[in-house]
Amino acid sequence: MTGHKRLPPWHEQFRLPSGRELLIRPIRPEDAGPIRGAFSLLGPDEIRQRFLYALKELTPEMAQRLSQPDPQNEFALVATEPLPPGEALVGAVARAAVVARTRDAEFAILVSHFIAGQGLGRHLMRKLVKWAKSKKLDRLYGDVLDSNLPMLQLAQSLGFNRVRELDTPGLVRVVLDLNP
3-class SS at 160? Predict the structure, then answer.
């Protein structure tokens, strides 16, 4: 990559097949507003589909919390327009959080429908896996709606296994063993 200035850790440019350029980077506190803005455009079904669990809305508190991960045991990336944090539209959020007193982390990925189906979810998931491995964790898992076939297929293609159906009807847990 000649001519490009080196990007900080976990920062990279990502070009969608449509030609649109995104910047993938760690989430910043300034992203809370744009994330809520992006969320307000989604219908409840979409939020259920895309945030993997039923989230009626993203409250200011949740957006705040999401945008300020604890560096010790949480990791969150956003895919944004290449503009300064706070101004950039956020098209996707991916996060993983270590479950207290375990070697497991739980993931959640939200990709806006404007840019869904272009390989971004897969790319972000790979980043979460890389982070989890860097933390020497044993497993990365997430609970996915059984109607969310793209996410289930993505997880399967990356080596995740479906484990028991959860107590919550309609949810499937997918687990990736990080030291097979």
Answer: coil
Write down the residue that tokens 């001519």 correspond to: 3
CA distance 159 to 12: 24
Concatenated DSSP letters for 7-19?
PPTT-EEEE-TTS
Identify the residue whose tokens are 């959860």.
166
113-164 residue pLDDT tens: 778 788 999 999 999 999 999 999 999 999 888 888 888 999 999 999 998 7
Token reading at 155: 């997880």
44-88 pLDDT, tens per residue? Answer: 565 555 554 444 456 778 788 889 999 999 999 999 988 888 888
Q: Single out the residue of 1, 102, 68, 81 nearest to residue 34, CA to CA.
A: 81
Q: Which residues pair with 176 in a beta bridge?
A: 140
CA–CA gap between residue 40 and residue 96 (Å, rounded): 23
Q: Helix 120-134 and helix 149-157: axis angle, to 10°? A: 50
Angle ∠(119,160,56) on CA atoms, nearest 5: 65
State the pTM of this model. 0.86
